[in-house]
Amino acid sequence: MSRTAFVTGGTGFVGANLVRLLLREGWRVRALVRPASNRGNLDGLNIELVEGQLAEQVLAPAMRGADAAFHVAAHYSLWRRDRHAVLRGNVEGTRAVLAAARAAEVPRVVYTSSVAAIGVKKHGLADENHQSPSGRMIGAYKLSKYLAEQEARAAARAGQDVVIVNPTTPLGPWDRKPTPTGEILVRFLNGKMPVLVETGLNFVDVADVARGHLLAYEKGRTGERYILGGENLSLRALLQRVGSLGGGRRAPRHSVPLWLPLAFAWLDETMLTPLGLGQNVPIDGVRMSKEAMFYDTSKAKVELGYVPGPVDEAIRSAIGWFTEHGYLSKRR
Known about the structure:
Blueprint: E1 4-8, H1 13-24, E2 28-33, E3 48-51, H2 56-63, E4 68-71, H3 83-103, E5 109-112, H4 139-157, E6 162-167, E7 169-171, H5 180-189, E8 195-196, E9 200-205, H6 206-219, E10 225-228, E11 231-234, H7 235-245, E12 254-255, H8 259-272, H9 283-288, H10 298-304, H11 311-324
Parallel strand pairs: 1-2, 1-4, 2-3, 4-5, 5-6, 6-10, 7-9, 8-12
Antiparallel strand pairs: 9-11
Helix pairs in contact: 1-6, 2-3, 3-4
């Protein structure tokens, strides 16, 4: 008998890949879509669209009869002007989804948090037991994911069946906006990245992140969080791989000290962007690059059977999708 999943954030990067995986696995899918959202990532899919906002009175009736709710939706912005909207959308939205799932008697909720909620470990790899103080989290987005995760954990302590997943930095298809990492790939492959900042991240195939959500539904322990990651790489190492897989472009030879892009970001966000002349460089985005964000995925591997594949396949998929959808210049 087919199971039914209620999914928020299905029009986004991770959500669109999760919806496709659910359909391949034989699930029926109901996807919440905002009235004004771009639904291109869901075009042509055999799913039920539920139009509405993240509010309990809208969500509870739509969730009735669902076997699982996957709360993937998040308001992502690193711009300081969006601080209140990010906090409201991610914290209050998560609270509303959890309340609606309780009212609709949904057996299990998988909440998509982020390693942003875990924070950064100064030396070595951070795992699920690590927790940076909220006061050290850079920007409203990281703080909002931390606070939203507290809502999920509180609901689990109160008896609701909630499992938390913490993706790292996904790469792959359906990155329509694109995400900041997708934007880095596009800029680099279009020859618009002459230098870089020396930093590092954990990169993962978005297909593995989607699979990790299903594994969390099937095997995760209530109230626990699971890092869904892949390979820890410096930005330079990532771009070397992207270049070799995307036509032979070389990674930038030179790096710049952090103060230089930080000064440019301050100029961009505080002066140029209000005039419509900005280059999309938020201050908090640059500040985040000062620390390598490396993570340990051992818990998900042991408890969920999570097996992430090589990042190279994700890079190939991302390049193919960006090429097909016109993000990359033909001169490349």
